[in-house]
Amino acid sequence: MNKAIKEIIIPFLRNEKFKGSFPHFRREKNEKLNLLTFQFSLYSPEFIVEISNCPLNGMKTSLGKVIKSSECRVQYMGKRLRVGSIKNGKDYWYDFDKQKILGNIFEKRAKEVLKNWEEAEKWWNENDIEILVE
Question: Which of 69, 85, 111, 130 is the most exposed place for a label (fewest CB within 10 A)?
Answer without folding.
Answer: 130
